[in-house]
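Objective 1.3, modelling of assemblies. Example input:
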Amino acid sequence: MSGNTFGTLFQVTNFGESHGPAIGCVIDGCPPGLPLSEADIQPDLDRRRPGTSRHVTQRNEPDAVEILSGVYQGVTTGTPICLLIRNTDQRSKDYGNLTMTFRPGHADYTYWHRYGVRDPRGGGRSSARLTAPMVAAGAVARKWLSSRHGIEIRGCMTALGDVDLPREDWSQVHQNPFFAATARHTQALEAYMDALRKSGDSVGARLYVEARGVPVGWGAPLFDKLDADIAYAMMGINAVKGVEIGDGFGVVRQRGSVHGDELLPQGFASNHAGGVLGGISTGQDVQVHLAIKPTSSIRLPRRSIDVEGQPVTVETHGRHDPCVGIRATPIAEAMLALVLVDHALQHRAQCADVSVPTPRLPAQPDDQG
Amino acid sequence: MSGNTFGTLFQVTNFGESHGPAIGCVIDGCPPGLPLSEADIQPDLDRRRPGTSRHVTQRNEPDAVEILSGVYQGVTTGTPICLLIRNTDQRSKDYGNLTMTFRPGHADYTYWHRYGVRDPRGGGRSSARLTAPMVAAGAVARKWLSSRHGIEIRGCMTALGDVDLPREDWSQVHQNPFFAATARHTQALEAYMDALRKSGDSVGARLYVEARGVPVGWGAPLFDKLDADIAYAMMGINAVKGVEIGDGFGVVRQRGSVHGDELLPQGFASNHAGGVLGGISTGQDVQVHLAIKPTSSIRLPRRSIDVEGQPVTVETHGRHDPCVGIRATPIAEAMLALVLVDHALQHRAQCADVSVPTPRLPAQPDDQG
Amino acid sequence: MSGNTFGTLFQVTNFGESHGPAIGCVIDGCPPGLPLSEADIQPDLDRRRPGTSRHVTQRNEPDAVEILSGVYQGVTTGTPICLLIRNTDQRSKDYGNLTMTFRPGHADYTYWHRYGVRDPRGGGRSSARLTAPMVAAGAVARKWLSSRHGIEIRGCMTALGDVDLPREDWSQVHQNPFFAATARHTQALEAYMDALRKSGDSVGARLYVEARGVPVGWGAPLFDKLDADIAYAMMGINAVKGVEIGDGFGVVRQRGSVHGDELLPQGFASNHAGGVLGGISTGQDVQVHLAIKPTSSIRLPRRSIDVEGQPVTVETHGRHDPCVGIRATPIAEAMLALVLVDHALQHRAQCADVSVPTPRLPAQPDDQG
Amino acid sequence: MSGNTFGTLFQVTNFGESHGPAIGCVIDGCPPGLPLSEADIQPDLDRRRPGTSRHVTQRNEPDAVEILSGVYQGVTTGTPICLLIRNTDQRSKDYGNLTMTFRPGHADYTYWHRYGVRDPRGGGRSSARLTAPMVAAGAVARKWLSSRHGIEIRGCMTALGDVDLPREDWSQVHQNPFFAATARHTQALEAYMDALRKSGDSVGARLYVEARGVPVGWGAPLFDKLDADIAYAMMGINAVKGVEIGDGFGVVRQRGSVHGDELLPQGFASNHAGGVLGGISTGQDVQVHLAIKPTSSIRLPRRSIDVEGQPVTVETHGRHDPCVGIRATPIAEAMLALVLVDHALQHRAQCADVSVPTPRLPAQPDDQG
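Predicted structure (C-alpha cells):
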C-alpha cells in the first residue's frame, strides 16, 4: 500500500536510503524450520555488489548482511527475519550540487513533487542501492524454493546496447563481468563499455531470467496471476521499462497454430507461453525478459531546471554504472524468487484439498541454451 | 490475495463464470458524491461487447449492467457498488466435448491442476468474458478521474498480426471495428481477418493505451510504483504476454543522452519515459504498449492429451474471436483507469500535507498522433 | 481497507443497503471441492431472519439466498462465490421523517459526517440487515470447518437485560425465541419483553459463542492473533460494545496461580484462557462473550438535532427489534466461523512444514454447560 | 497476514526476539514533512521500560532507540522509518530449564505447536518486550495526531487486582509507579504489591485509555469500524482478555432510553457510546477499557508437562512483572494512536470530497475525571 512491502504471504518490507546509516528489510512469513545463516545470503549480495569490475560504479561497499531476528540456532523460527546492511562508503559530497536541480531521466523531479522533501544523498530512497535488501530477501526465498521444491532460478544478459548476446552456455555467466551466457563476446563488450565510459554516456540492456522446476498449478486466475505478479515485480526494478513472458512481443505476429503449445503424453512440445497459462504455472520453465533503460546520471551536459523552474545545465560526476543492466541480473533473479515463494505459500493455503491424479507432465528442459 | 480483487483503496472484486447465471463486481472505496447511473457504464461495455462485427465472436449478449448498491438518488454514497450483468446467451453444448481434454495454449490444463475441478462451460472463470465487469468498474473510475482531475484515457490497436497500424488520427478509433487510429488500413484489415477466419487460425495484436492529464506525483517509490502497477494490471488481462512503458524494449539500444527527457521551463522536451520516473508520474502522458497473443481456441487440429494423459486431437468449433486483441482496447483503458484511481486515492492519503511551490510543469501534449 | 471486506485468505466482501434492490457478498478464497448449495446456507439465514417471533422486528423478508457463481455441479470451484439476497419488503416510508434528523445512539450522525450523503431508507448501509450476508458466508465457512476439521460452533444468549440466563442445556437453544440455553426462563423472558415493548423502550443483552474442536496451533503471534481477530470480528457486529475471551474482565481480580491453566498428560486441567494463549489456539474450546447495546431506535421521545443543528424531538415508529441481541447469536457464530476459516488457511500456508511429535493434548470438553 | 504488521496506510512491521540481537520496527506510510528525532520517541519508551520501580521486572535495559531511515535533516521524508532497539541485558540462563517444558498460561505450548521450533530465551517472540517497538511507533503516530489534529491520548490503571482506582486526578498518573489517576491509593498499592511479590503469585489489572479531540467521521462502516480496529489492537496486546468501548458490558442491563446519547445544539448530552457510533467517531472522547490477565510466569509451583508429554512441576524464577498491567498503559496508548492515525489517513483518501456544512458539534469534555 505505502509502497515498501513486497508480497502477501512471504512479505518483504524494505527500508533505508543510499547514504543513510543502513539499508535492510524485514521478511515476514518465511516458514519455520529452514536452516539459514548469513552465509546463505552473502553470495547473492556479492554478485550484485558495486566495485567488482571497472564497468560498474566504483563505490566500495562490502554490503555485509546481519541477521537481527527470526533465526534461532541456525534455523528460521517462523517469526520476522530482519536483515541489516550498514552503509559504509558515503561520499555524499558527490551529490551536493544536485540537490536543487533535477537530473533528466531521474526520479529527482517526481520524488520532490510527491513528498515535498527528499534525501538527495546518492539518490536517497530512489537509489538502485535499495535493491540490495531485495537480493538478500531473494536469497532466503531461493533457499526455501530449492530445498522444498528443487526450483532453480538463473538469469543472464541477452543484449548490452547494440550487442546481442546469445544464451549458449550458462556455465559462462559468472566467468565474465557482464552476466553473459556466452564466452565469445567478452572482449567486444569490454571494448564497447570502455568506449561508452570514455564518451560520458550510458546505454540500456536486455536481460533474461528463468525458473526451472516450478510445479504446475501455481498462480491465481484473475488478478494475482503468476505472470502479472512477475510483471509487477520486474517493472518495479529500477530502470526497467518492458517485461515479456515467454515469446513476449513476438506473439503479435504469431498464428495461434504456432503459439499454442501442444501437449504430448511425454510433455509439452514447446514453450511459447513461457511457463504460464491463464495466470497459472504449466510446470515448464518460467521465462521472463526485461528491458533496462540507460543510466540517467551521465557526464554529458543535459538541459534541466532547478527547483525554482529556472533553466540549468546538469552534468553528473559521481560514481555511476554506465549500464545499470550489468548488475541487474541478480536482482531480477531475486524478484522472481520472491514472486514464486509467495505463490507457493498461496497454493498451500488454498489448494491443499486438491488432488489431481493424472497427468502431471514432466517439466520440459529449456532448449534455448 | 485470492486473485479476484484488484486495487487497494478503490477495490474491485470480480465474480462469475462465462456460462453461470451472472458475472459482476463489487467496487469498494469509490468516494461518495459522484453522480452515477447505468448510463455512465453501458457505453464502455458496449464497446467491448461481443457480436458487434463479423471479426469478433458471434455470441450475442446485451451485457446490460445493473447497479445493485452504493448509489442513492443518482449519487454514490461511499459504500460498495455492486454491478451485475446477467448471462443470457449460454450455448454450453459448444464446449461439451472439451471437458475431458486440454486445448493447447489455453488455461484448461493449469486450472485443472490448481483446482482439481473446473467449470468448463465457455472457459468458465478463465473466459475473457470476465473482463466485462472490469470494463464496468473502469467506467466508474474514468468518470471520477475525469470529473475530479480532467484525466482522459484512450487506446487503439497499433498492430494486427503482420499489419502495423500508425497512430495518426484518434478520431478514427471508433469508426472501424479494429480500434485503429487510422482510416487508411480498414480495407486491408477486413481482408486480412477474412482470410484468417477462413484458414481457421488466429493471430496476435499490439495495443497502445495512454492517460492524459495525470498530475505529477502519483505513484510510490519501491514496490507500488505506478508503472509496476500498470504492468501488473496489463499482464493480468487475458492473453497479454508483454508490457512496455514509454519506449519499452526500445531502451535497450538507446543512449542515456537520448533517453533522459530534458526539462525546460516550459515543460519536458520529450517523453521517452512514458510519463513515469522512479515509479511516480511526471505529469506527462502515461504511455503503455501491450502484446496480445493469438486466441488459443482455433479450428485447426492440434495435438493434445486428455485428463488420463492419452493423446487426442483438439479442434475448437465454438464461437471465438480470431484475434482477441480486437476487443481488448476498452479493457486496457479500463485497467489503466483502475490503476490511476487507486494511486489518486493513495496520494490523497499520504501526501495531503505536501505543498511544493514550483515548478509544476505543464503536461506536454503527445506528439505521436 | 475500505471497510467492506472481511478476512485475508477467505475474504468476504459485503454489499447492499437495507432498502436497496439487494444485499449480498462475494466469498473469495473458499477452497475448491466443497459440496455446496443454497440448502447449506438457508437454515442459518432463517435463524437470523426477522419476523420469526413477536419479540423481533415484524419486517417480513424471506431472505432467500441465490448462489450466482463459484459452484459447478454442486461443488465449489475455488473461484469467487457470489451470494445474492433480494430485498422484498421495503416500507421506506417508515423512515421518511428521519432523513433530516439524527437518532440518538444511531449511526445517522456519523455516516452523515463521513460521507456527506447517506441512504436513509431503513438505516441504509448501517442497518443490521447487512449481517445477513455474513451469516450466509459464515454458513459456507462452517461447512468447510466441520467437514475438514470437525469443528462445531454454537452460541446462546446469557443475559437479556436484567435476566441472567445460565448455560445449562444446549438442546434448548432453538426451542425458544431467545436462543437461551435453558428451558426455565422462557416465560419470564416473554413477560419481560412484552413489558419492554409496551414501554416503548429497548434493552441490551449478553451472548456467548464457542468453537469446539479447533486444533492447537491456529493463530499468529503479534497482530493477527486469533483472539485479536475474534475481538475485531465481534466488535464489528452492529451494537456490540464489549468482547471477552475466556474469563474476560474476570481476570482483573484473578491470581496467576488460578488463571494459568495447568497441563496434565491427559489434557488441560481448566480453560480460563478461553482456548487461546499468545494469540494461538490451545486445542481447547474457543470461548467468547459479547455485550450488545440496546436498540437505538425506540418509541420514547428523545432530544436530538436536525442537519441544520436545530433542536428536535425524535420518536422512532418503524419496525425495530426491542433487543437486537435476540437475533445476534447466529451472527456471532458466523463471524467466529469466518475468523477460524481464515486462520485455518493461514496455518496451511505457513506451517505445512511443521511436524510436532508430542504432545498434542486431547481437546477438553467445556464443563460449563 | 503473517502477523507482524499492524495497520494499512500507516503500517508498522515489528521484528525481534526478547534475547536476540535487537528488536525494532519499520513504519511505512508516515506522511512526509513531520519533524522527528529520537527525542520524540524515547520518553514513551522510558515510561514502558523495565526496571523503573521495584514492582516491575528488574531487567535493566536502556531501550535506546535509533532511527535508521526515513528521516532527513530532522524531518520525515515519507519513506520507511526503521526504529532499532538493541537488546543489552540478556540473562538467558534464567530460562534454560524451561525450554523443554510448558509454563501454564504461557504461549510456550501454542508456539511450539504452531512453529515446531521456538526461541525460548526470555519468551522469544512472545515476550512482552516486543511491545517496545509498538510504543516507539505509537510515539510517531501521536506526534502526527497531535500536530495535525490536536489529538491527545492518555491512559491510566483503573484496577490493580482487588483494588479499584478512581479516575479522579489525571495529573497523578506519572507521580506513582502504577499509572493510577489518583494520589490516595499509592500506599495501599505498594503494600498490596509487596505482599503479592512475597507470595510468589501475580494478579490482573484493568486499564482505561482515551483519545481526546478526534474529529467526527473517522472510521468505516462494516468491518474496518473504528471500534473494531481498537478491539483488535487492544486484544492483540499481550495478556489482554477483554475490551470495552464506552459503557462496555454495562450496556447489557441498560435501556435504550438511557444508553442512546442525546444530541443538543451545543453538543452530545452524554457519552455512553464511548465516542463511536456505527463504527465511526462521533467527535467525543474515544473511551476504551481493557482487562489484563495475571502474569503466567510465577514462582509458585504449577503442574505441567514436558515436550514428551510427561508430567512436570514448573516454577519460574526469572525476572518477571508480578502484574504486567502496570507497564501496559503506555502500550495501550500507543496502540490507540496507531489505530487513529490509520483511520485519519483512510479518511483523507476516501472522504476528501466530502463537505458537510453543519452541524459539527463541539467535542465534549469527559466528565469522569
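The domain at 5-351 of chain A is CATH 3.60.150.10 (Chorismate synthase, AroC fold).
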